[in-house]
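hi! just following up on the protien thing from before. the input was this:
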Amino acid sequence: MTPSSYVVETTGLTKRFGDRTVVHDVELQVPRGSAFGYLGPNGAGKTTLIRMLLGLTRATSGSMRLLGLPVPDRREEALARVGAIVEEPRFHGYLTGRENLQIVAAARDSEAARRIDGAIERVGLARRANDRVKTYSLGMRQRLGIARILLADPELLLLDEPMNGLDPAGIEEMRILIRSLVAEGRTVVLSSHLLDEVEKTVDALAIVDQGRVIAQGSIAELTRSGPPTLVIASADNARAGSLLAEQATVAGVAAEDGVLRVSLNGPEVVANDAIAEINRRLVEAGIPVYRLEPAHTSLERKFLEITSRLEEAA
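and the predicted 3d structure came back as:
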């Protein structure tokens, strides 16, 4: 059977606790071999979705597949190829990192024990593997948690808020580790409320709010919106704005935080020609240009735009 191009697929997935719906009709497709973010504020149902995928809580309705296998019907077979951290990983603090992994490996096959050294090296804990876990920082415990799930050599990793509570150095270490796991051909799904870090880490994502997926796709697809826009800073923004507003290729000019945001008519291919023309007009008018570049919508801005529209419609 040809493997699906998606390692996680859900259709109409819903979870209710009494009268409260925490996951609502979720349609999710996670591409194989990618870092995929499930992004939303606290209380958006992110952990509940991961728990349903793992069979830790039963869905109220809908269907799901992991690695092409239906869950829960073939849950045991699917989870043999899945590693997961749900909330903060727990360990025996009085044991060393290596001893904690040995306990886990003992419950698995002989291959797991042989992977211990490689897993420890893989997550950058070789120097601290023989120290007691109670001396580890939160970031080190998070990495030890990933070493623990690597003992099963998983194809798919589900990580619940892996960067939560980490300092900037710990976040950077986790980001590098996730990208390296994807480079090995694995798929990593991480839930998070940290928009900026998700944007730097993942290839694609779903934005979730109040249990609903409200947008899904690659970073480029989700941050691409509206007409092409330029950010311009010059020696005389007021004069530059008046001059550019008269150009046929310019749809609008707005002053914002000391720069001009100039929206253009036409698609990007037309806009590329317009950029050179705009620069030429400003230089010929004797207006020195300090900055002229395409504007990029951040994931945070896109998320706030989407959620604001939802609030207005509610």
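The first strand starts at residue 6 and ends at 17.
Residues 268-284 form the longest helix (17 residues).
cheers
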